[in-house]
Specification:
By secondary structure, this protein is an alpha/beta fold. It is 25% helix and 26% strand. It is elongated and about 80 Å long. The structure holds thymidine-5'-diphosphate (TYD) and magnesium ion (MG).
C-alpha cells in the first residue's frame, strides 16, 4: 500500500509547498500553512468528461421520507435540544471551555443510555479518573465501555469489535491518524479524524459525540473548523465559578437551534434544571435597593432573572463601571441615556452591575430591569419585590417593545409576581385582560421613574 502523500497549503491563497513555512511567499500572510492530504489523479490528464458514476437526479416527489427512529437519551433537556432525541448515524460536536463540564455531561449521557451499547474513548484521562468521575455521578451500567486510546485506527477497530451504537470521543484534539505526520491537535489531524469518523458513522449508523475544546478567544483550530462537517454543534457554556451551565445547539440538522437546556453542576454531577426561575431569583424577605427582576427569553425559553446594581460615590477621579453577565458597552450606553434623559448625575458615581447565577444575558429586554436597578440603588429605594420588567431602552430614552411578550408575562405570572412593567408599544393586538397580573405600560424612562419610585 502506498503511503498517503501530504503537502502544506496556504489557507489564504492556496499555494502549495513541500514543507512548512511561517510566512507565505505568495501572499505574505503569516501562519497560514496547513498540512493537507494530497489526492492526485493517477492518470494525470483529463481524457473523458463523462464519469461512470451511478447517482441520478430525481424529483422531490420521488423521495420517500422515512421518519428516523430517534434514540431516547433519557434526559428530557437533551432530547429537547436535539429535536426529540438522537438521530442514529449522526455526528455531534460538544464544545466548551476547559473545565466547564463536557466530560461529565458526556459520561452522564453514556451512562444514561440504557438500551444502546456505548463506548467512551478518552485520550485525556486514565481509566481510574473515569471511574472516579462515574462514582461521583453515582451511575453505572454494564452497557458502557471505556477505552483509553488516542489512535483513530485502533479506536475504529474497537468500535467495530464492541458493536457500540453510540461512541464518545473525548476529545477530538487528542485523536490522531497515522496517515498524517503532523502532531495531534493540529488542524489537519482534527479535520481528517473527524472526516473518517463521519464516514464511519454514516456507513454504520453509529452516533458519535465529539468533544472539542474552545480557548478563551474561541478561535482554536479545532471546533470552529469542524462546525460545517458535523450534524449538530452543541455549546456548553457558563461561568466556571458558578454552578449553572447552559447547553444550546448552535447548529442542528435535525431540529431547531432555539432550544436550550439549563444544568446545575453539583458535587454529584450535572442536574437538569426544569424551572430556572426558581433558582435564579434569591428569595430574600427584606426589600433591598438595587435589585430588579426581568423576564428574559433565551431562544424560545422564558425565565426570570435577577439584576443587581450598586451605585456609589466614585473614590478616584474616573468613575468605575463594571458588569458581570451584561455587555459593558451597553451598560455605558444605558448610563448615558439615564444621564441625558432622566437628569441623574451618574458621572461622579461608580456603577457595578451583576446578573444573578453567572448567566450571560443578550436579550435586550433586560435593559429596563438594568435601568431600574441602577436608579433604585442610586436613590436607595427598593423596588417592589413582586414587580418584573421587560423592555428595551432606546437612545432617546424611549421604552421599546420586545418579542414574545405574552410568554414573558405568563412566566412572571407562573412565578407569582403581581406587577409587570412593559413598553406601551407592546399593547397592540394583545388582550391583556386574560392575565391576572397588573401591567404598567410605559413609553419613556421619565414615566418609569414617576411610577416605580413614587
Ligand atoms: P469536566 O467534566 O472534567 O470538565 P471538562 O471536560 O469540560 O474539562 O469537569 C469540570 C469540573 O466539574 C471540575 O472542575 C470538577 C467539577 N465537577 C463537579 O463539581 N461535580 C462533579 O460531580 C464532577 C464530576 C465534576
Ligand atoms: Mg474533559
Amino acid at each position: 500500500m502506498s503511503k498517503t502523500k501530504t503537502s502544506w497549503v496556504c489557507q489564504n491563497c492556496g499555494v502549495e509547498s513541500s514543507k512548512w513555512i511561517g510566512r507565505c511567499t505568495s501572499c505574505g500572510e503569516w501562519n497560514t500553512y496547513v498540512e493537507e492530504i494530497v489526492r492526485k489523479d493517477t492518470s494525470g490528464k483529463i481524457t473523458n468528461y463523462f464519469s461512470i458514476g451511478t447517482a441520478k437526479p430525481i424529483t422531490l416527489q420521488e423521495i420517500t421520507y422515512l421518519e428516523e427512529a430517534r434514540i431516547d437519551t433519557q434526559s428530557s433537556e437533551l432530547n429537547r435540544i436535539l429535536g426529540g432525541g438522537m438521530v442514529p448515524g449522526s455526528i455531534l460536536l460538544l464544545g466548551g471551555e476547559p473545565g466547564i463540564g463536557k466530560s461529565t455531561l458526556a459520561l452522564q449521557i453514556a451512562l444514561g443510555l440504557k438500551e444502546v451499547k456505548t463506548l467512551y474513548i478518552t485520550g485525556e484521562e486514565s481509566n481510574q479518573q473515569i471511574k472516579l468521575r462515574a462514582s461521583r455521578i453515582k451511575s453505572n451500567h454494564e452497557n458502557c465501555f471505556i477505552l483509553t486510546e488516542t489512535s483513530l485506527e485502533n479506536s475504529l477497530t474497537q468500535i467495530k469489535n464492541t458493536q457500540a451504537g453510540f461512541v464518545i470521543v473525548d476529545s477530538i484534539q487528542t485523536m490522531f491518524t497515522e496517515n498524517i505526520s503532523s502532531s495531534p491537535g493540529s488542524i489537519s489531524q482534527i479535520r481528517e479524524c473527524t472526516a473518517r469518523l463521519l464516514r464511519f458513522a454514516k456507513e454504520t449508523s453509529v452516533s458519535v459525540l465529539l468533544i472539542g475544546h474552545i480557548t478563551k478567544e474561541g478561535n482554536l483550530a479545532g471546533p470552529k473548523a469542524l462546525e460545517h462537517i458535523v450534524d449538530v454543534v452543541l455549546q456548553f457554556e457558563g461561568d466556571k465559578n458558578h454552578m449553572y451551565r447552559i447547553l444550546r445547539a448552535t447548529k442542528n440538522r435535525f431540529g431547531s437551534t432555539s432550544e436550550l437546556g439549563i444544568y446545575e453542576m453539583r458535587n454529584s454531577g450535572l442536574r437538569e434544571v426544569h424551572n430556572p426561575s426558581e433558582l435564579l431569583i434569591s428569595h430574600i424577605d427584606e426589600n433591598l435597593s438595587g435589585v430588579s427582576i426581568s423576564a428574559t427569553i433565551d431562544g424560545v425559553r422564558p425565565f426570570l432573572i435577577e439584576t443587581q446594581a450598586l451605585v456609589s460615590s466614585a473614590v478616584y477621579g474616573t468613575p468605575q463601571r463594571s458588569s458581570t453577565g451584561f455587555d459593558l458597552r451597553r451598560l455605558n450606553m444605558l448610563l448615558a441615556v439615564l444621564e441625558k434623559r432622566a437628569g441623574f448625575k451618574l458621572v461622579a458615581k461608580d456603577v457595578f452591575l451583576n446578573i444573578a447565577g453567572g448567566i450571560k444575558v443578550n436579550d435586550p429586554a433586560i435593559d429596563l430591569a438594568v435601568i431600574s436597578a441602577i436608579l433604585s440603588s442610586n436613590i436607595d429605594i427598593p423596588i417592589n419585590k413582586r414587580m418584573c420588567f421587560a423592555g428595551e431602552v432606546g437612545l432617546s430614552g424611549e421604552i421599546r417593545p420586545v418579542n414574545r411578550i405574552e410568554q414573558r408575562i405568563r412566566e412572571a405570572e407562573k412565578f407569582g409576581l403581581s406587577e409587570m412593567c412593559i413598553s406601551k408599544y407592546n399593547r397592540k393586538g394583545i388582550d391583556f385582560s386574560k392575565f391576572n397580573i397588573k401591567i404598567h405600560f410605559q413609553s419613556r424612562i421619565e414615566d418609569l421613574i414617576k411610577n416605580i419610585f413614587k
